[in-house]
Amino acid sequence: MSKNPDAFTRLINALKILPNVGPKSAQRMAYQLLQHNRDGAQELSEALQHALKQVHHCERCNTFCEGTLCDICADSSRDPRRLMIVHMPADVSGMEAANCHDGLYFVLMGQVNPVQGMDLSHIALDKLVARLQNSEVEEIIIATNFTAEGDATAYVLAELFKNLPYKVSRLARGIPLGGELEYVDAGTLAQAVYERRMLKE
Amino acid sequence: MSKNPDAFTRLINALKILPNVGPKSAQRMAYQLLQHNRDGAQELSEALQHALKQVHHCERCNTFCEGTLCDICADSSRDPRRLMIVHMPADVSGMEAANCHDGLYFVLMGQVNPVQGMDLSHIALDKLVARLQNSEVEEIIIATNFTAEGDATAYVLAELFKNLPYKVSRLARGIPLGGELEYVDAGTLAQAVYERRMLKE
Ligand SMILES: [Zn+2]
Ligand SMILES: [Zn+2]
C-alpha cells in the first residue's frame, strides 16, 4: 500500500516517539517539515544534538542545566530554608511564573506509579537524600501533581521525611482534582502554595 | 521566570515548528526526550538529517521519493491513461490503501488558499503541465480535499484543463463536507472514486 520512501518512513517512525504523536500526526509533521520547513527540520535536528550534548542535571536540584548549578540554585537571594519538591522542570517554570516561592527546588524527574507497584527507580530519591545532608533546609514543600502518580509520590516522600527534622507540607488542594501542575494558571498555583496543608510540624 | 537552560529552550523552540505543537506540548516533548528517551532523540535527529539529504521529489509525480522515480511511477502495471491529482503524499497512501485507483498520481504538494488571494505558488502547476506534455493521460481525476482550500485548488485545476483534451472528474462528494482525505476511511474513499462526478467529457 503506502509507497513512502524509506527515509520518509524512518522520519515518521522517529516522530512517533514524541508524546501524543500518532501515525497520522507523525506523517503530517514529516510532510510539513520536508515540504514546507526544511530550515526548521535542520534546526530541530541540530537542537536535538545540542541538547543531548549540553543538557545534564543540576548538581543540587536535579533539573535540566548546562553548567554545574542551575540559575535558581546559583541565586544567593533565594531562601535556602524552604525546599519545594516537584515532578519535572516545567513545574519549576510554572511555579516561578506564579512568583510565590522564594526558596529552592528539587526536581524528581519522574513520578511513582501506584499501578505498577510503587517502583521508586523513576524518581531521584538518592539524590534528594544527598541534597538534604548538611543542608540549611527547614521546610519541605511537596508540590507533586494531584493525580494518582502525584499522590503516590507525595506518600513516598512523606514516609521518607517522617522521622527527619523537617516541617513538611503539601500544596493546598486548591488545584483541581486530576489536574497537572503545568496546566494550572499562576493565580491558582499561588493560592495552593499559600494555603499549603502542614503534614508535619 | 522560567530558568530553562539555553539548549533546552532552543529544543523547545525547535519543536514548536511542528504542526499543532504549542509551547506546553513542546516543553513536554523536550522533557520526555531528554529525560526518558535520549535514544529516541538521537534517532529523531539522525532521521531528520537523513530525510533532508535523501528525500526529494519524484520526477514524474512530484511525491517524496529517494530515487528518480517513485515506486508507483516506476510500476509498469499501472494504467498511464488515468492521472489522479492529490494534495500531498499522505493522500496517495490513503488512496492506495483504498485500492480503487490503478492509474498514476500527481502530487501538488500544496493547496490554493482562497482567503490569501488564490496564490498559485504553493502548488506544482508548472510541473503538472510538463508532466502532461506528450503523456498517455486521457482522464484526470481531481482528488483534492473538500475544504475551502481543496475546492479552490480543484477550481484552478478545472480552469487549467478547460481547453485541454482530457476527461476531467472530481471525487464524489461522498467524502464528508469539511473532511480531509487523510482522515477518511478506505471504504468511503473507494466510494468517492467510483462515483466521481464528470466535470468535462
Ligand atoms: Zn539547581
Ligand atoms: Zn512518482
TrEMBL record, chains A, B:
Membrane-traversing stretches: none
InterPro entries with a match to the protein in the record: DNA_Rcmb_RecR, Rcmb_RecR, Rcmb_RecR_Znf, TOPRIM_dom, TOPRIM_RecR
Keywords: DNA damage, DNA recombination, DNA repair, Metal-binding, Zinc, Zinc-finger
UniProt-listed Pfam families: RecR_C, RecR_HhH, RecR_ZnF, Toprim_4
Entries under PROSITE patterns matching the protein: RECR, TOPRIM
Stretches assigned to the Toprim domain: 81-176
Start-end of C4-type zinc fingers: 58-73
Homology family: Belongs to the RecR family.
Function as written in the Swiss-Prot or TrEMBL entry: May play a role in DNA repair. It seems to be involved in an RecBC-independent recombinational process of DNA repair. It may act with RecF and RecO.
UniProt cross-references to HAMAP family, sorted A to Z: RecR
Protein name: Recombination protein RecR
Provenance organism: Neisseria montereyensis
Lineage of producing organism: Bacteria, Pseudomonadati, Pseudomonadota, Betaproteobacteria, Neisseriales
